């Protein structure tokens, strides 16, 4: 069975990110897509800011902590990802970037989709994330989900997406799943 991790992109206490990630998981399961989906919350990993002696850290296990090893094992066990990113100052959050930088080969040759949100749909953040993911040898699918803080959130705090997004999210989920399955053959 293909395993898809839905990676949260924020560690802030006041975040809405986890709501979006859980909605994506629930939506995928209701569509009957032939894959296992799990939310991977970067806030729960115990990793600190990336400030390591040897990047990527997992290239040299002698520097690894239990948190590093757990993060490595979690990402290594997944076949593909859907990154749920907020837009902070036209970019991804530092927490998400740090979590990406902790690893190297665990990301390679896997599929990735992007779901963004913000006052301008998170478009700038998704573009920045595409570049980072491509450098980690992830195959990024299109289209991407893009939600508005003004139209898809009640009081900018409760996620209530408009139905107009369903077709895009369907395509995203199917593409990530099929690409993730295909890329298993080269890992």
Outline the structure in words.
This protein is α/β, with parallel strands linked by helices. It has a single domain, classed as Flavodoxin domain (Rossmann fold). The chain contains 5 helices and 8 strands; from the N terminus they run E-H-E-H-E-H-E-H-E-E-E-E-H. Strands 1, 2, 3, 4, 5 and 6 form a 6-stranded parallel β-sheet that branches. A two-stranded antiparallel ribbon has the order 7-8. Strand 4, helix 4 and strand 5 form a beta-alpha-beta unit. It is globular and about 50 Å long. About 40% of the residues are buried.
**Cα end-to-end separation:** 15 Å
In percent, how helical is the residue content? 25-40%
Anisotropy-based shape: globular
Query: Any idea of the CATH topology?
Result: Rossmann fold
In the predicted model, the low-confidence regions spanning at least 5 consecutive residues are: none
Radius of gyration: 16 Å
- The first-level CATH class is given as Alpha Beta
Mean of pLDDT: 93
Q: How would you name the oligomeric state of the polypeptide chains in this document?
A: single chain
The number of helical segments is 5
User: What order do the SSEs take from the amino end to the carboxyl end, as H and E?
Assistant: EHEHEHEHEEEEH
What's the total number of strands?
8
CATH homologous superfamily identity: Flavodoxin domain
Q: In the residues, how many domains can be counted?
A: 1
